[in-house]
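Appendix B, record 7
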Amino acid sequence: MPKAPRAKVGQDKKPIHPNSRKAQQLTRKASRDQRLGVKNLNTQRTELLADRLMWFQQNVDLEKKCLKKSELASLCKKYLSRFEDELDQIDIVQHIGNRQGRQHAAREAAISMTLNKEKDEFASNGLELPDLVNAKNFEYFKQWNGEIKYLQNIKLRKIAITDSEECDEDTSESQDKQMDDLDNDDSS
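C-alpha cells (predicted):
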C-alpha cells in the first residue's frame, strides 16, 4: 500500500514557534520586502522630479543666460496650469450625450490630486525647481539630456507663491518710481 504524501511546511496551518528557523525566514522576508518598498518609493520620487525638470527644460527660453526670479515664478504658474487643456477635453467628453457613467474619471482624479498637491506645495513652502537664476546651473541644465543619474548635479531651488508676489511688488514699486521720475521731470 502506498504511503500518504507528507504535508508541506506552511500548509498544515500549525502555529510557528517564535524562535524557529521558519519564523526567522519569515521575518527576513518581511524586512526585505519593506526595504524594497522604500527603495521603490525613492525611485518614484526621483522619476517625478526628473519629469518636472524635463517640462521646465522644454518650456524655458534656452537663449537666455539665466532667468530672473519673477520669470521663474511665472514659469512655475504656467507649470501648475499645464493640465487645463486635458481637463477641458475631459469635461467636454462628459457633457456629450446622455451618458450614465463618467468617462476618464480615473485620469481626472489623478490630475486633480496632482494639482492639489503641487498647489499646496507652491502655496506653503514652495515647489522644488531647477535653480535657473544661477547662470552656471542654468548652463548645465540646458545641456542635461534627461538622464536620472545626472539629476543630482542640478541644483534645486524652492519657489513659493510669496516669491511671485514679491516680484510683483518689486515691479510695481519700480513702475511707481518711474512714474514719479516722469512727474518730477514734467514739473521742472
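Remarks on this record: The first helix runs from residue 21 to 59. The first strand starts at residue 127 and ends at 130.
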